[in-house]
Write a structure and sequence with these properties.
23% helix; 2 domains; single chain; Nucleotidyltransferase, domain 5; alpha/beta; 5-stranded mixed sheet; 5 strands
Length: 230
């Protein structure tokens, strides 16, 4: 059973307290000044960390002014992203995921997936000395320079899990985070397209649901607690 069983798709919210960018609500078309309506507590991860990225097609749905600014005609059909890795400017923003095994997760939309972009997110979120597991993507190659242990699997060579210390347990993998991405895609799919302006709030809500470990109506108490916190 998923942590999202019994939840209706997110359409609007009156407060940005669980999102990733202070001052924007899911129903707003433009950024606003920061609002005193509850603030998401920063998450600190440590121990064994899986890092991976996913790419979500997100244009400027419902924002004709932004579409015109980009010099494009409005679409009647759902936006289709280009194959492969994407960028925010290319309407396929990357989302970086940092997941502590048996712990919390942090996900954040980024303009691109360069080392200079991911380093501040990682060093702000993960305690130095933690053990990272990633795939072979070279953006993670400088993790040791940033103060972390790093082991990786080579997906392009068909390797998805590896027993590094010979104890029979294949600890080197990012399968937990891959499963998390699968749940995220399934949850976003019924919305039939989300604007990149509002995507961070959907991501923030999904992250919140995962981290509070509540299902269905039981989630309401945790949501109210964070929204009404002084």
């Amino acid at each position: 059973m998923s942590v999202l069983d019994g939840l209706e798709p997110l359409e609007r919210t009156d407060c940005g307290g669980v999102g990733s960018i202070a001052g924007r609500c899911a129903g707003d078309d433009q950024p606003t000044a920061p609002r005193d309506c509850g603030e998401k507590k920063p998450v600190q991860l440590s121990g064994e960390i899986e890092a991976d990225e996913v790419y979500i097609v997100a244009g400027h749905k419902g924002l004709p002014a932004e579409v015109a600014k980009a010099g494009r005609q409005g679409r009647r059909r759902r936006l289709k992203g280009k194959r492969g890795r994407g960028t925010l400017a290319g309407d396929k923003p990357p989302v970086l995921g940092l997941l502590q095994r048996d712990g919390e997760v942090v996900i954040q939309m980024l303009p691109n997936v360069q080392q200079v972009t991911i380093q501040p997110v990682i060093t702000r979120t993960v305690v130095p000395g933690s053990q990272f597991y990633t795939d072979e993507y070279d953006i993670y190659d400088r993790l040791p320079e940033w103060g972390y242990l790093h082991q990786k699997v080579n997906h392009s060579a068909g390797e998805y899990a590896r027993d590094e210390d010979g104890d029979g347990f294949h600890e080197v993998h990012v399968n937990t985070l891959e499963g998390f991405w699968s749940l995220l895609r399934s949850w976003l799919r019924p919305h039939r397209g989300i604007s990149q302006e509002k995507l961070p709030w959907y991501l923030g809500f999904f992250e919140f649901v995962h981290n509070v470990r509540r299902r269905g109506k039981a989630l309401l108490h945790s949501l109210l607690a964070i929204l009404l916190a002084p």
